[in-house]
Amino acid sequence: MAAWCVGTAVQNNDGAQGMLLSKAPTALATLLNLSQTDPDTAVRRKAAYALSSAIRNYQPAMDELLRHLPENVKSEMGGSVDASDMDQVDKVVNWIRAATAAGATN
C-alpha cells in the first residue's frame, strides 16, 4: 500500500518527486528491491508503479535509479537515460516490469 501511495503522490508532480529524493534518499533503491524480490506479486507491481511515477520527467530520480540498475541493463540503455524522452523511459520501465514479473523466482 505504501508503494502505491508513493507512486500516486509523485506522478506528474516534480515537487513531490524532489521531496521523495530529498526526504527518503534510499526510496528508489528500496522500491527497486521490492519490485524484484517481494514474494507478494501485488507489492512488486505497486513498487514498479511507484518507480515509473518517480522517474518520468524527473532527471534526478532517473539518475538515482540508474545507479542501482544492473550494469548490463545500464549498458543496454547507453549508460544514461533522458527522463523526458518517453521512449527511453519506457525501456527502463519495461525492464522493471519484466523483472517484477519474474519476481521472487530469481
Automatic annotation (TrEMBL):
GO molecular function: adenyl-nucleotide exchange factor activity
InterPro entries associated with the record: ARM-like (IPR011989), ARM-type_fold (IPR016024), Hsp70_NEF-Inhibitors (IPR050693)
Gene3D superfamilies: Leucine-rich Repeat Variant
GO CC field: endoplasmic reticulum
Coiled-coil region(s): none
Record PANTHER family: HSP70-BINDING PROTEIN 1, PROTEIN FOLDING REGULATOR
Name of the featured protein: Hsp70 nucleotide exchange factor FES1
Species of provenance: Helicocarpus griseus UAMH5409
Phylogenetic placement of the source organism: Eukaryota, Fungi, Dikarya, Ascomycota, Pezizomycotina
